[in-house]
Each structure stands twice: as C-alpha cells, then as structure tokens.
Amino acid sequence: MQRYYLTWWLWICGVMTVLGNPVDNLLNRIDPGAARKFKTELVKADRDFFELDQEGKRVVVRGNTWVNIASGVNWYLKYYAGVHLTWNQMQAKLPAMLPKVEKKERHETDLTLRYDFNYCTFSYSMAFWDWNRWEKEIDWMALHGVNLPLAIVGEECVWRKMLLRLGYSEEEVGKFIAGPAFLAWWEMNNLEGWGGPLPLSWYDRQEKLQKQILRRMKELGMHPVLPGYCGMVPHDAKERLGLNVAEAGLWNGFQRPANLLPTDKRFREIADIYYEELTRLFGKADYYSMDPFHESNDDSKIDYGRAGQVLMEAMKAVNPKAVWVIQGWTENPRPQMVDGMKKGDLLILDLFSECRPMFGIPSIWRRPEGYKQHNWLFCLLENFGNNVGLHGRMDQLLNNFYSKNDSSLFTLHSSLKGIGFTMEGSENNPVMFELMSELPWRPEKFTKEEWIRGYVKARYGKEDEDVLKAWDILIHSIYNCPAGNNQQGPHESIFCGRPTLHNFQASSWSKMKNYYDPDDTKAAAQLMVKAADRFRGNNNFEYDLVDICRQALADQARVQYLQTITDFNAFRKKAFDKDAKRFLEMLLLQDKLLGTRKEFRLGRWLEDARSCSTLPAEQDLYEWNARVQITTWGNRTCANEGGLRDYAHKEWNGLLKDFYFVRWKTYLDGLSAEMEKMTKPRPEMLGSGENSNKTAAELFQMALPQDLNIDYYALEEPWTLRHNPYKAEAEGDPVDVAKEVMDYLKP
User: Fold this and answer.
1) DSSP assignment of 354-394
2) What is the DSSP letter of 251?
3) Is residue 391 within 8 Å of residue 490, measured between CB atoms?
4) What is the pLDDT of residue 514?
5) Which DSSP category does 615 fall into?
6) What's the confidence (pLDDT) of residue 6?
7) Average pLDDT value over all residues in the chain
8) pTM above 0.85, yes or no
9) Treating both helix axes as pointing N-terminal to C-terminal, what angle do 66-79 and 448-460 enclose, rounded to 10 degrees?
10) What is the Cα 170 distance to its own chain's centre?
11) Around 126, how many Cα atoms within 13 Å sit in the side-chain half-sphere?
12) CA gap 634, 639 in Å, rounded
C-alpha cells in the first residue's frame, strides 16, 4: 500500500511539474524553492509589458506572455536583488527575504519580436551541447526576452531522410552532410561533407535533443524558427538526379552544394519531401529560416524573383500563416528576390545593426530605402568566430537603435518589429548582451555612463568605486569601437596569429583597426585587481577579473611583440633574445591565468565533444572536429589559400601552451638563428661569386631583414590529430593569478 501511495504521489508531482507555471519552474532552476518567493501573473494586454509589484512578502511579476514575465523576473533580480544571471552564472542563492518593490514599476514595448542566434552560433558555441546545457540557454533566453529563437538542431536528420528518399545511399549522405563542428556552413550552402561522415547514433542523439529543445521553448510561449528549404542540393545532383542546377563552385577552397533552379520541374516535389520530413520529426512552425544564395555572387542563370516566389509557395503550403525569416547580410536579401512579396510574409534580420546597418542610416552597407515594405529586426552581431576578447560599440549601438525616435526616419523604421541577438559565438561580453536586451523596454535614449553603474551593481551585488572606475575606463575605450571602424569582433590577440614580421590581425577577415590605447585595459585591470580581495568568491567578479586581466596581458603582449621585432630589424641580438623570452613568458602566463576559469579552458570544449558518444571511434571523430574548427578550420588548401586558418581562434588554457606557443617559439627561435647565422662567415660562399650578377635592387632587397618561410600547416595539423586529454576543471585561484599577471606587467 505504501508503495502504491508513493507511486501515486510521484505521479501527481510529475504532472504538476509538467503542467505548472513555466516561469515558476525556471525560478526553481535558478534557486530551488525560489518560486515560493514570487507571484507570477499572466495578464491579457494590447501591448507587450511586464510589471513589478508587491503582495505581502512576495514579489509580484505580471506580464502578457511567459517570456515577458521572465524578463520582469530578470529585471527584478538585477535592479532590486543584485543578482545577475548570465552564461557564467545561471544559478544563484537568492536572499531569504527578497527586497520589496516599494512602488509598482511597469515597462512596455511595441517591439514584440526578440530573436536569438546566428547559424554560426550552433557550430562555434553549441556544436556539442547536451540537454543540460541547452536547458540553461533557454532559461537565459526567457530571462532576456527572447521569444523568436532559431531552432536548427537536428536539421541534418531531416536532410538524411530526404536524401534517402531521393535515392542517395547512406554512404553518399555521409559524404554530403558535414561533421558536428561544421554543420552551420553546410546548412548555409557553403560546403559539403567536411568533418563527416556522421555516425547514425549522431542523428538519433540530435533528433531527441531537438524535440526536448522545442518542447521547452513552446512551454515558455516562444515561437521556434525552424529551417526551411532554400533549394540546396548536393553538387552532383545534376548527374545523380537529372536536376537543373546552378553550380555554386568553391567557398574558400571547399566544394559548395549546388542550387536547384526555381524553374526545375521537380523543385516543388523536392521541397515538399523536405517539409514532410521536417514536419514529421519536429512539427510545423510559424516562422521558417531560409538564406538562399548565401555569400555568393549574382548568377545570370538564376531568376531570383522566381526563386523567391517558389520558396515562399513551398513554405506557405506547410503553413499559410508562416513567415520567412532571412538574414540581411552582404547581398542578401536581393531586392529582385523579395520586392514583389507582401508585407508581413518576410522578416529580415538586419544582422550587424550596431556597425553596418542596412536599414537606411549611414553605413558602408546602407540601403537608402531600407527594407521597403518588409518587417525587420535590429540585431547585435558583436562576435565573429566566437573569438575571445573584450569588445563593444556602445555609442553606436545606442545611436543606431534610438534613431527610430527620429521623425525624419519614420518611414524607414515603421516596419521595425523587434531586436535580435545574431552573434557568431555566445558566452562572451555579457555586458553588451545585457545592454541590448534592455533596449526594447527603455523607450527613451540614455547614456552608457548612467547605465553601467546599474549594471556593475547588479553584476557584482554591490557598488565599489574602484570597480566603477575600471568599467568607466572600459566603456570609453575597448567597449566603444567608433563609427567608421568596421572590424569584425574583438581586437584579436597577438598570441593567436601565425607569426610573421608584421603580425596584426590573427584571422583573414577581421578588418582590425586600432581604436583604443592598450594602457587603458591595463589600467582597468589594475583597478579590478585592487578591488579583488573585496570580491573573493564572487563568481561574476572573478570571471570578469580574469577576462579583463587577460585582455590587458594580450594588449601588452602586442607591445612586447613590436619591441621584439624592432630588436630583430635593428639587429640587436642580445635585446632580441631578452624580449623574445619575455614575450613567450607572457604567453605562458596567459595560459596559467585562463586556467583558473573553466570558461576559458580548452578541456571543456574537448570534453563536451567526446561526451557526445561512448564509442571511442566516434569520440575521436568529434574531438577531431573540435580541434580543427578552432585552429586550421579546413585542410591545407582551405586553411592557407582559403584563408580559414585561425578564424575561430581562442585564447584558451591548453591551446595557448600546446598550439600557439609552439608556433611562436619555432618562429622566434628561427629569427634568433637567422641573426646568429648573419654574424658568422659562410665558407661555402667565399669566392663563389654567387651574387656577382644580381642587380642593385636585388642586392638591396637581400640586405633588408628577411622573414622566415615556415610551413605552419605542417606544425598545426599534428595537434589536430592527437587525443591527449585536457582537464575541464579550473586550476588555481583567479584572484592570486590575476595579481601575479599585473605584478608581471609593472614597469
């Protein structure tokens, strides 16, 4: 009998959990039992809103959607309780007695759509996430107002079933679909097969994971954006299936899939198969994401107007009310593809609104008429390649966003429906995402100076003058990249680039340009260290302490590098050896500092990859994907000629010591040897007359300092093939090591 009652009680508890208030469940994940301290009320309203109130000992949070209520909870936790929830801290111990809301506070917005994710995020950040990590991310989204998340986990499952129905074999499917760390670029029609073939167990894992993700998103009232069909087919589809295709050629050395021409008689048949399999696995959606002809030149064979029409028709056949979501990026959306579409059928993500907006205000990508009749979202890109580094455009973000209040621009902004987070990588620069998430709820423009004071108090739970001074320096320097600087993401660390005599940016397309004094980040780090003992054990503070000191050390290392190269060019052998030694010491000290936080450890990334399977062969494949993505990115051709190497570079513990250090030591030792060689006579040259026929210009060039010719790929590839373990757990005390770093940087 006791067993019966226990079973019945557990069943009742389970039902209550499933059917319960989703925000209460979220609160209890933050802090078990926290929901009892709040009263959440779902209220009908004409405008999106949340409201904070008090009822006895309980804080009341009202809103017209669960996500808006969650936004209100987050607002309360930050600005009343001094609790900041973000990627490095999604759980917290709330006060036994919550601070009272003395006066009702209400926030409203007409920006009803709040989007999240870039296709790249799913590979640069989420490639190996499990449900435990995804559950935290969905909580983060709800707390930050997201109600329109891109949901493309498991898209490869749909494609596998579709291709099998079209007659492709499992082996052929494996050659087409990319590996887990490269799925985003396969999904965007950039490459085929790299990183694969995927084991069948991967498809089972991702199908189950996507269903869990969708279930939770829908419980919270979100509208997941599922991947639609944009005409991609394998590059051999012409020969294999007799289809009429536009050849896509190469993307940075990779074979691109082909584009099925919209006039092909089988276009609708293939699109219907895709949507049938998508719906069977993951249901229907109100929004579908499609980015046809992504990062490609115009092709005279393609009727872009017809292409847009057939893509829209295939999507509407699944759900007549569905909206097509498309990225505003470089040439897309092509006017000839979307000009004839009805208002409301298309939602455009202005992907880089804080730097290169297309919606009509000045920028290098400005479209004078904006997006015409189409609805669009103001988006924050912030990060490329998920590179590690402090970075932001605070003034640009505020100025561009609040241009919506300019009456002279009303027509351009009348179709603005919300905001979006479109970062290539997440879990970095939380200050910028916190700022962005609050913009819809703040109708009047404000200054970064007044906002940062509230942020710092919420972030660390109390005010501190040294910390405020540190952040004041940061928001006026590294977090204030100015208009006209179009660099893609943070200033790249000197440690992470392939060494040369002229190192500046690490990746091929970063477009870096100096805009802040490296002594500013050093000064901010010194102030953080000065306050550090007062914040020992404060998780958010210690994360920021490490990140800011990391930035300061990287910036000073760039200065050290320039001095070292000056020594070489001046032929100061002793000074060179001393300065090269110091540069390498700084690199290893950076490795030690980053080892004190799990967020900056290579081991976390590799352990997540291997945890996707229990079979050694599959674990090795996933680890290889993880190692390649953050280093060479592709094979020799794609890494070197394609320019992809180091695009996703990371300042991470373990990677610095075992990958970047090897490159730099090889290079600096080579320069030292070159100087040594120049000081000694070369018997083989005596009387040879080897240079007797050289021109004056050739002899002059020979007299200049010569760079080394090093086959870096040959140094790099062996590391990608290894399986030596790296620990994910933090080692060392972040405060103590931060002090060590700043002591090292003293004059």
Assistant:
1) TTS--SSSSSTT--TTTTTTSEEEEEE---STT------BH
2) E
3) yes
4) 97
5) S
6) 42
7) 94
8) yes
9) 90
10) 32
11) 30
12) 5
pLDDT of 600 above 60? yes
In three-state secondary structure terms, 72 is helix
Cα 662 from chain centroid (whole Å) = 27
Residue 732 has pLDDT above 80, yes or no: yes
Q: Any idea which residue has 């919506």 for tokens?
A: 404
Pairing of strands 245-246, 250-251: unpaired
The residue to which tokens 């009343």 are assigned: 80
- DSSP state letters, 221-236: T---EEE---SEE-TT
Phi and psi at residue 222, to the nearest 5°: -75, 160
Percentage of the chain modeled with pLDDT above 70: 95
Does residue 703 or residue 209 have the better pLDDT? 209
DSSP code of residue 197: P
Q: What is residue 8's predicted lDDT score, i.e. its pLDDT?
A: 39
Residue for token pair 């089972």? 204
Identify the CA nearest to 235 among candidates 249, 251, 222. 249
Sign of CA dihedral 257, 377, 412, 319: positive
- CA within 13 Å, CB half, 334: 20
Q: How far apart are CA 237 and CA 249, in angstroms?
A: 14
Q: What is the pLDDT of residues 89-130, one digit of tens each?
A: 999 999 999 999 999 999 999 999 999 999 999 999 999 999
Report the distance separating Cα 491 and Cα 513, nearest Å. 8
When pLDDT is cut at 50, 70 and 90, the band that residue 299 belongs to is confident
φ, ψ (nearest 5 deg) of residue 323: -115, 140
CA–CA distances in Å: residue 334 to residues 304, 315, 331, 418, 659: 8, 19, 6, 22, 42
User: In whole angstroms, how far apart are CA 370 and each of 130, 357, 365, 397?
Assistant: 39, 9, 10, 18
